[in-house]
Specification:
The complex is a heterodimer of chains A (296) and B (384). Chain A has 296 residues and is mostly helical. Chain A has helices spanning 10-13, 24-35, 42-66, 83-90, 92-126, 128-143, 146-160, 166-189, 195-202, 207-235, 239-244, 252-263, 267-294. Chain A starts with 9 loop residues before the first helix and ends with a helix. The model of chain A is unreliable at 1-30 (pLDDT under 50). Chain B has ten helices and 20 strands. In chain B, α3 (115-125) crosses α4 (130-143) and α4 packs across α5 (159-171). Chain B is elongated, with a radius of gyration of 24 Å. The chains are: A mainly alpha (296), B alpha+beta (384).
């Protein structure tokens, strides 16, 4: 790879050790490393790898287990079967709870996305002290202990007869999902040029038209990732769900909890694997989508 | 060029083709904007921008020029006063109903739309048929010399090209007027010159009203039919570039547009009566026509002379009879390519002045004692 004279940065002038034009990947790696503040030492890389394994391993553990037999949890499974998956898809309770979780998750994500986006856009224009205070208040569900929220929700929902109802689950999950949308949309607004709104107004677009034609397309990625986070938050929420559960209405995490604590049912491994795969695919898909649109 | 204050700005506007052109008249009456700060941002301004006129709002930063433009655009609400377009009150109209094109310093192009989509934006808002939109977009891109880039995104264009797209987008829908908020501030010097010509050409071709905000006095002089000079939220002076340069009414105007030699005058009594004023131990004669109407009799004032009007005499007898003259010492000689200037210490009190040297004044030395003189008709007495 030949260096152009215009690249007269210190990096460009440094002699490249690899033979030029022969192995471009090596050259590129060297150049990127000198550009960084410090080279990354081997022990730091090892540490990063250990942390990654520590974080991912428990999740991965469950997948081989889900291919085990129907009698007990075992790792490694003695013989590989699809029995647990067969159980899962033939059991009414599992299927109903899955459906409940998906419905609650979608509705909660919808509400959280609308509220969170509106809040983010509003606070972006408000700025100053009041905006900071409102933003902090909206973030409370993120930092408050789940059990505190769950108890508070349970007591008030008892009074309003919302315990064990779809509406109850949706409202509670929407509330705890709002901060995720707020954060995602706020960060996508951070490099949003507010002169665009003025330009749009001067060109004859009303504020609502401007939101549709300018703001939405430009912060769409943030809204989408906020919505996905909101869905995932609701989909795997268990503390509030345990308080709100009712024999007639249970979400999947609650059913998983029941199956482990009361029944010691290994089908739970298949359910867990499904959740892991679905959540991973959704989140990875979002990442890929993000990097694709960025290229333009 | 006579420098009498009798040449009013209105006279020039009426004499030119300006007032006969199409376009919208913008009238600001007693307009104020108070943001709750100690000083109002815009303080009781009245200004009429004639149809088809190129009006520049000029002033230092914080002088209220941009706030005034935002009031016209509707981005800020009036504290007091009213704004009329062709006689119709638009004071309470939101920006998207005012039908004004606007150019911003940072272009403000929609990054997710192509050049053609950006330009079509106002037309789609107005629900024009597709074929008509395509036709108008093509025409206006031709006008700003950007044909063939319809499907580019703004990030693929240079700064100058982006501002051309913004210009096309701002004029394609036949706006009442075009508001330009320092549109050339982000461009380098050469490009700025090209785009200035472009803006002038388009102003001529469209004949619509242009309101241009800048802090660059050269740009203002170059482009404007008239200049409204702002200072601390008030209108300092409104007039043609020639009027503001040759007949400033205040010291602020004299200093903001071009260089000036300033002689402080403690008592302007002699000026308002049209005879003479005292400066240091000297008497400088004054013609009645060169005294600003804003100089109050007896108050302090300033006598200003432009550097190009100051001549240098090496001996006092070389000064023509009747001309004003003061003793001076050459402090510094500057070579500026097409001409040279001398920095002078005027009189005995350390007043610093500047003279643009004529070719025959080439033999000056630094430190030389000389006499600076000028014709009485070339000076102005202004309010301070």
């Amino acid at each position: 790879m030949t260096l152009h004279p215009t690249q007269s940065s210190p990096v460009g002038e440094r002699p490249v050790t690899a033979p030029p034009s022969k192995s471009p990947p090596v050259t590129r790696r060297i150049r990127r490393r000198v550009r960084g503040v410090d080279p990354i030492p081997w022990w730091l890389k090892l540490f990063v790898a250990l942390v990654a394994v520590y974080l991912i391993l428990p999740t991965v553990f469950v997948i081989p287990m889900s291919f085990g037999s129907t009698r007990s949890f075992a790792f490694p499974p003695k013989n590989l079967t699809f029995d647990l998956y067969r159980n899962f898809f033939s059991d009414e309770r599992w299927l109903t709870s899955l459906q409940n979780s998906v419905v609650v998750g979608l509705l909660a994500a919808l509400i959280a996305t609308v509220v969170g986006t509106a809040a983010a856009v509003g606070l972006h224009h408000l700025r100053g002290k009041p905006a900071q205070i409102i933003r902090a208040l909206l973030m409370v569900p993120l930092v408050a202990p789940a059990i505190v929220i769950a108890v508070a929700v349970y007591i008030s929902f008892l009074k309003w007869h919302l315990v064990g109802t779809l509406q109850g689950y949706v409202l509670a999950h929407a509330a705890i999902a709002v901060p995720f949308v707020l954060v995602a949309v706020t960060s996508s607004l951070s490099n949003f040029d507010s002169n665009l709104l003025r330009a749009s107004a001067s060109l004859g677009a009303s504020p609502s038209r401007t939101f549709r034609r300018v703001t939405m397309p430009l912060i769409g990625k943030g809204i989408l990732s906020g919505a996905v986070f909101a869905f995932v938050t609701s989909f795997d929420e268990v503390v509030i769900a345990l308080f709100l559960r009712d024999p007639t209405f249970q979400t999947m995490p609650v059913q998983m909890y029941n199956s482990v604590t009361y029944e010691i049912d290994p089908t739970m491994a298949a359910a867990s694997s499904l959740v892991v795969v679905v959540v991973t695919v959704v989140c990875l898909g979002l990442q890929l989508l993000g990097s694709r649109t960025k290229k333009r | 060029m006579p420098t009498t204050h009798a040449t009013t700005p209105a006279a020039k506007a009426a004499a030119g083709a300006v007032s006969t052109r199409s376009g919208t008249q913008i009238r600001l009456t007693d307009v104020s904007k108070d943001f709750g700060l100690p000083e109002p941002a815009v303080d009781n301004i009245s200004l009429t921008i004639e149809p088809g006129e190129f009006m520049t709002l000029l002033g230092p930063s914080g002088s209220g020029k941009t706030t005034t433009l935002n009031l016209i655009a509707g981005f800020e609400t009036l504290t007091t006063g009213s704004i009329l377009f062709n006689g119709g009150d638009v004071s309470s109209l939101p920006p998207h109903k005012r039908n004004l094109g606007m150019l911003f310093q940072n272009y403000a192009l929609f990054p997710h739309l192509t050049v053609a989509q950006n330009v079509a934006y106002p037309l789609r808002e107005r629900k024009l048929p597709k074929a008509e939109i395509a036709e108008k977009v093509g025409q206006v891109l031709e006008l700003v010399q950007l044909t063939g880039r319809d499907s580019h995104y703004p990030s693929q264009l240079s700064g100058g090209q982006q501002q051309r797209v913004a210009l096309a987008r701002a004029i394609v829908f036949d706006p009442n007027a075009l508001l330009l908020d320092e549109p050339l501030g982000a461009l380098d010097r050469n490009l700025r010159g090209t785009l200035q010509q472009e803006i002038q050409r388009i102003h001529r071709e469209l004949g619509s009203t242009f309101v241009f905000v800048t802090h660059d006095q050269e740009e203002a002089m170059h482009l404007s039919d008239r200049i409204a000079l702002f200072n601390k939220g008030r209108l300092e002076q409104v007039g043609t570039p020639e009027a503001l340069y040759a007949a400033p009414e205040t010291l602020f105007t004299a200093r903001f547009l071009g260089d000036s030699n300033v002689f402080d005058i403690a008592d302007s009594g002699g000026a308002t009566s049209g005879s003479a004023v005292a400066w240091e131990d000297r008497t400088l004669s004054v013609e009645a026509g060169t005294v600003s109407p804003r100089v109050a009799a007896g108050a302090s004032a300033a006598l200003v002379v432009r550097p190009e009007d100051v001549r240098i005499a090496t001996t006092p007898d070389a000064v023509p009879a009747g001309a004003n003259h003061v003793s001076a010492t050459v402090r510094q000689l500057d070579y500026l390519g097409s001409y040279r200037t001398a920095v002078l210490a005027l009189g005995g009190g350390g007043t610093v002045g500047r003279a643009r040297l004529a070719p025959q004044e080439d033999d000056l030395r630094v430190g030389q004692a000389v006499t600076a003189w000028w014709h009485v008709g070339r000076q102005c007495v202004v309010a301070v």
